[in-house]
Amino acid sequence: PTPQVRPGPLGDLLKEAGRAVGGVEDAYVRKEDDDGRVWAAKTQTELRAKYNQRMIEAQNSGEDLNGLPDRLKAEIEGDLQKARKSAPGLRGTHYLDLASPDFIADVQGAAKGAEARYRVTKRVGDTEGIIDANRAQAFTNPAMFARLHTETKALVDGLDLPLEMKTRLQQQVRGIGSSAVQGMIESDPYGAATQLKAGAWNKYLDPA
Fold it and tell me: Is pLDDT of 199 > 80?
C-alpha cells in the first residue's frame, strides 16, 4: 500500500497563514472597491449639480445656445479628466468611466432641449424685428406696401413654429397695412379716405 503522509504542524500553520493572507487581500480589495464606488458616485453627483447650474445660467444669461450640447460635452470631459487624477485608485476611475456616458448623454439631452427652445425664441424675435422694420418702411413709403406685405406674410407663413407664436406673428403682419394707411393719411388724406371708403384696405386691416 502507498504510505500516507500527513502534514505536520508546520504544514497546518502554513495553510492557516495562507488563508489569513487571502482574507486580508479580499478585505483590501473590497475596501478599494467600496472606496472607488463612493468616490465615483460623489464625483458624479457634484458634476451633475455643477452642470444643472450651468444649464440654468446659460438659459438666463442671454448666451448664444447654438452648439450648447457639444460645448457642455467638451467641458464635462475636461472635468472628468481632472477628476480622474484625484481618484483613490483604479476602481474609482473604473466606476466613474462606467457612469460617464449616461451622465454626458443626460446633460446633452437637456442642452439640446434648451438649444431648440433658444432657436425658436430667436427665430420669433428676429422675425418680429423684420415686421417692425417693414411697418416703418410702409409708413414712410406706402407705395411699397404690396411688396412688403407679400414678402413678410410669406416668411411668417413658412416658419415652423408653435401655433400660438405663429398666430401672434401673423397678427403683427397685419400691422404693416395699418402703417401704410397711416402713412397715406399723412401724405394724401383725400386719397386715403377714398380708398378706405371703397374698402380697398379691408383685408389688410384689423376690424375696428
Answer: no
Cα 171 vs. chain centroid, distance in angstroms? 30
With cell 406696401, the residue in question is 145
Grid cell, residue 109, equals 439631452
Dihedral of the alpha carbons of 98, 102, 103, 104, in degrees to the nearest 10: 110
CA 118, CA 125: separation in Å to the nearest integer? 10
- C-alpha–C-alpha distance, residues 97 and 185, integer Å: 71
- What are the DSSP E strand ranges found in 84-190? none
Give, to the nearest 10 degrees, the angle between helix 9-60 and helix 68-85: 150
pLDDT in tens, 15-56: 555 555 455 456 667 888 888 899 999 999 999 999 999 999
Here the cell at position 156 is 411668417
- pLDDT, residue 182, reads 87
